[in-house]
Here is the input.
Amino acid sequence: MVLSFGLQAQSKEQLEKERLKIIKDIEATNKFLQTAKKDKESTLKEVKTLEVQVDNRKKLITNIKTEITSSDQVIIDNNLKIDSLLRLRDKLKTQYADLLRYNYRQELSNNKWTYLLSAQNINTFLLRWRYLNQFTAFQIQKGKEIADLNDLIRAKNTDIEKVKQSKAQLLALEETTFKQLESDKKNKDVVLKTLSSKETELKKQLKAKQAEREKLNSAIERIIMEQMRAAKSETTASTGNKEEKFDTESAKLAADFTKNKGKLPWPVSSGFVSGKFGTQAHATLRGVTIENNGIDISSNSQQTVSAVFGGEVVGASKIPGYKNMIIIRHGTYYSVYSNMESVNVGRGDKINVGQKIGVTGLEDDGTSELHFELWKDKAKQNPESWLKRR
Here is the structure.
C-alpha cells in the first residue's frame, strides 16, 4: 500500500512539473504575441506563434486529463484502503471486546491482589504476576492499534478531500484552457484568411528566404569543411607532439560534448521554439515545405546570446538575412549562432560555456529571433535533442 502511494505521488509530482512548464511556455508565447500584434499587418510570424500556442494548449489539456485520471485512481485506491482499514478495525474491536469480557469474568481488574496473594507459593505468584502484566500490555496494545487505525482512516479521508479539491481546480483549468484553445484556433484562421490573399507576395518572400538560408548553409559548410581538411592535414603530416596533443584535446572535447547531450544550456535565457528542426509544412502555402537546419528561438525582447559549450570560434561573418553569425568548434562538433545584431568575439577566440558572444537583433515590432544550429562534422543535429529541458 505504501509503495503504491509512493508511485502515485511521484507520478503526480511529474505531471505537476510538466504542467507548470507548459504554462510557462504559454505565457512566453502570449507575451510574444502581444508584442508582435503591435504590427498592424498579419504576418507569418503571428501564424507560427499561434501554431505553437495551439500545440501548447493541446499539451496542457492532455496533461490535465492525465492528472484528473490519476486523481480518480488515487480516490479509488484510498477508498479501498479505507474499506480494508475499517474491516481490520472491526476485527480488532471484536478482539478487544472479547478481552474485556474475559477480564470481567475473571475479575482480574477488581481482584488483582486477591488473585496474586492466593498463590500457593512464590513461583505461582510470579507466574500470575507475569501473566497479569502481559494481559494488561496486550489490552493496551489492542487499544493503541484501534486508535492508530482511526487516525489512518481520518488521514485517508482528508487525502480524498484534498484530491477532490485539486480535481475541481484541474477541471476548471481544463475548461478555461479549452476556451483559450478555441480562441487561438479562430485567431489563427483569421490571420490565415488574411494572408491567403497575399499568396504571390508570400511565395516571393519564401523564395528570398530560401536563398538566404542557402547562403547561410553554404557559409557553415565551407567553414566546417575547412576545419575538417585542416584536422586531416595535421593528422597526416604529424611529426611531433604538438599535433598529437591537438588531436587528443579535440577528441576529448568531442567526447565531453557527447556526454552532455540533453544537458546543454540554452543559448538565450528566454523565448520559445518558433521554428522546429527538419522539414516543416509552410504555415500558409499548401504543398510547400521548409527545410530548417536548426531551430529558431523567438522572444518578445532582445536577448543576450551565450555559448552552449566551451570551444574555439572558427567562423565569424555577416550573412544577408541572418545578420551576424558565429561558429564555435567543440572538437568534431560545431554550434552555430546567427541573426545577431552584434557580436563580441572573433575567429580564434577561446570560449567558455555560458560566455556571452553577442545579442540578438531587434525587429521593428519589438521581437527577436535567434537561429541556432548544431553539427557533428557534416551531419546536422536536432538542437532540441541536445539542449536541456526547461
In short: The first helix runs from residue 2 to 36.
